Every structure is written in structure tokens, then in C-alpha cells.
Amino acid sequence: MNKKSVRNVEVAGKRVFVRVDFNVPMENGAITDDTRIRETLPTIKYLIENGAKVILASHMGRPKGQVVEELRLTKAGERLSELLGKPVAKADEAIGEAVKAQVADLKEGEVLLLENVRFYEGEEKNDPELAKAFAELADLFVNDAFGAAHRAHASTEGIAHFLPAVSGLLMEKELDVLGKALLNPERPFTAIVGGSKVKDKIDVINKMIEIADNVIIGGGLSYTFFKAQGYEIGKSLCDNSKLDLALEFINKAKEQGKQFLLPVDIVVTDDFSADANTRIVDVDGIPADWEGIDIGPKTRELYADVIKNSKLVVWNGPMGVFEIEPFSHGTLAVAQACAETEGYTVIGGGDSAAAAEKFHLADKMNHISTGGGASLEFMEGKALPGVVALNDK
Ligand SMILES: Nc1ncnc2c1ncn2[C@@H]1O[C@H](COP(=O)(O)OP(=O)(O)OP(=O)(O)O)[C@@H](O)[C@H]1O
Ligand SMILES: O=C(O)[C@H](O)COP(=O)(O)O
């Protein structure tokens, strides 16, 4: 990576503003997956051990510039304190006199967590005044929030214009792994793209046709490709505005000599619920009033074979509605094949990461990104503003 890392600068005795992504899933006030907090421990511990005064900042949810009680970072602070085995002070705001006083009291090796930065209107607007107010709290900015690196916000991008700005260890790891995988891929390289909407995945499918050897398509976005080829898709998801583009992708893959794999059979249902009737049909057999919900057994076998014969697999988006057990078999089969392949496996965050966790296969993958949208934009080849703003080496 051509950006400076926290390891390249002096941190002892310095006040360090560390942007993390503690936007963790919560249910009834409790954290249901603390992966993003655990993944920042190397950076936080490094700073503690090297005598920095650590000021942590994060967003949580989308409060749109208002204080939303359920989106306070209190629980995240408590969890971090448990994981670190030391107290983590918590501020009730992210800027202002009270916060300044708390920062002034910080001793070397101590940690203070600021309140949700999205409680301020200026955060998402990347307001320079807010960025300056964050910067005034510190001597150094460390960005470890890979999950929010695709956002040009005051605490991810703006602040980097007012302080020396370097990457944290998680940010560095994410960029190294994803960068190496995509810039110099081991081949055969298979990209798996699933999920619900074609429009969210256009750029990634396009890019993957260019750089991968095999592109595997699954999930709700498959049906736009089927309809484009003239098949009946019943009540399945479809983006009618993308039919031409779907055909273009199929042709582009053909022209470039790439394998573009679409499901050959699918699980259809007459209702979107666990006890609905289901059937397995070939792609040309979807009943007009039924809905495609998962890939079928022939497809599972075909996809697993391709995955197991790959040296690199990059997976983004589930193969079906994996949250409902009868429709989870396709996603499970792909997760199992990723777990079993000798190739290097990268999961691009979001729902595929949640699926790997759900199937207890997460520890069998080589890299699970902490970024959903961020990893997608990185794979599309887009520059991430939170990274661009950091100091060059
Ligand atoms: N055939 C289908 N019909 C309807 N929904 C589907 C189908 N296949 C998958 N889904 C749904 O798609 C959702 C995931 O789509 P999305 O495009 O958000 O994936 P993702 O990119 O992995 O997630 P994220 O955006 O969080 O990174 C899941 O909730 C899943 O239930
Ligand atoms: O969960 C994420 O993908 C990141 O925390 C970014 O959140 P956002 O999509 O609300 O900006």
C-alpha cells in the first residue's frame, strides 16, 4: 500500500483520533455480532502499548444528524472494554467543551470513545467546520474504518486535511488482501456475485467479467438474466430496466472467453415463508405464479465444482433467501465449497459474511472483509475517499 500506516509514525504521548467502524448489528439493545469491534483491537492495542492517548470515533446506523438514543455507542464501548480488559471512557458527545476536558484528562495508554459522529449534521455533509473540531482534539488521525472508507464524511475524509493522516492496521490489512487478490490474482479466479438487486451489482459484475476467469451468478439478480434470455420468471425479482445490460454482460463474457455461469435449476416457492410449498425446476420451468428463491441441487453441484477448482474465490452476495432455512441450501453449498477449496477465499462483507457466520464456516475462509459497501466499491475499482485522503508514504 502506498499510504502511511500507524506503524510509520511516532505515537508516544500523542493524542490520536482513531476512526473505527463500530456500526455493529444490534437487537433489543444488545450487540449480535462484535466482529467489527474485535477486528480493530490490533490497532487500539498497538496505540495503547506505544503510549498514545487513544480517542475513538465511529458512526452507528443512520441517525441523519439527530441524537437517536438507541444509536448511542455505549454498548460498543462496554464491549470494547471487555475485549481490551481495561476501562474505556465514554463521552456523551463527539465535540465540544466537555469532550475537550475528557481528552485533556487522558493519560498515555488510556482510551476514550466519542459519541456517534452521525449525531451531527456536518458528518455526512463532510462539513470542514466539524472536521476541524474533530481535528482540534488530536495530534494525529488514524483511519481504521475500512467499512466506512467509501464515505467522504467529516470523520473519515475531512479530518485528514487538518492532521497528519495514516491508516490503521485493519485498514492496511483489508487494502493489502483485497488489493493483492484483485491486482495480481491467482488463477483460475472465480468471482461469485449474488444478492437481491442487479442495480447494486452492475459495476462489480462488469469488473469481474474483465478480471476473473469465471463469474458465478446467483440470488435474486439471476432472474433479470433469465428474463433477458426470454424465460418465464413468474413472480421472481427482476429489474426490467436492466434487461439489455444483462444480455450485454452475457455477450461480453463470451467475447472475452470467460465462463459466465447462471443457475441451471432453481428452487421456486408459492409464498415467501418457511412453510410455503416449494419445487425444484429447470430454468425453463418456472411456473407463472411462483417465485425463484434459491439455486437448485444441480446448480449447487456445478458451482461447488468450479469453486473447488479455483485458486482464488471472491464472493459477494447470497445465492438465495438464506435467512429462511428451506431457501438457504444454495448459499450453504457455496459457503461449504469456499470452506473446502484449496484456493484463497475472500468474502466481501455484508450478507455473505453473515451467511458464513450463520453456517459456522467463517473461520474456514481466508479473509472476511469488515466492509460491505466499501469492499464492493473497492472490487469495482473505485477509489475510496477515506483512503485517498491519507498521507502517501
Ligand atoms: N431469489 C431471491 N429472491 C429474493 N431475495 C433474495 C433472493 N436471493 C437472495 N435474496 C436476498 O438478498 C439479500 C441480500 O442482497 P444484497 O444485494 O443486499 O446482498 P449483499 O451485497 O451480500 O449484502 P450487503 O449489501 O449487506 O453487502 C438477502 O437478504 C437475501 O435474502
Ligand atoms: O455498515 C456499513 O457498510 C458501514 O458501516 C457504512 O455504513 P453506511 O452504509 O450507513 O454508510
UniProtKB/TrEMBL annotation:
Does this UniProt record's set of keywords contain Iron?
no
What EC number(s) does this enzyme carry?
A: 2.7.2.3
Q: Does the keyword Transferase apply?
A: yes
> According to its UniProt record, which reaction does this protein catalyse?
(2R)-3-phosphoglycerate + ATP = (2R)-3-phospho-glyceroyl phosphate + ADP
- Range of residues in the leader sequence: none
Q: Which residues bind substrate?
A: 21-23, 36, 59-62, 118, 151
State whether it acts alone or in a complex, and with which partners, per the record.
Monomer.
Q: What is this protein called?
A: Phosphoglycerate kinase
